[in-house]
Amino acid sequence: MGDRSEWRDTSSGPPRAAATAAEFTPKQKTFRAYMDHSQGCPDCDYGNRRCDVAQEIWEAWRALPQ
Q1: Per-residue DSSP letters for the chain?
Q2: Residue 3: is its pLDDT beyond 70?
């Protein structure tokens, strides 16, 4: 067989678990909802045009405190 290079985890410490929903702020959760929607919506053109649902989510995100 030929040379095969494989990625190996060389970091120290235990592996990090994926963040759970409880670890995210309401602002982060709302932005994630916006991104999930806009990427799957045929009426949204990322960055240029938003459907009514995306616009509502965006306005809710903007209204949340930092």
Answers
A1: ------------SPPPPPPPGGGS-HHHHHHHHHHHHHHH-TT-BTTTB--HHHHHHHHHHHHS--
A2: no
- 57 burial class (0-12, 13-18, 19+ CB within 10 angstroms)? buried
Q: What is the pLDDT of residues 5-16, one digit of tens each?
A: 677 767 676 666
pLDDT band at 21 (very low <50, low <70, confident <90, very high): low
List the structure tokens of 11. 């970091």
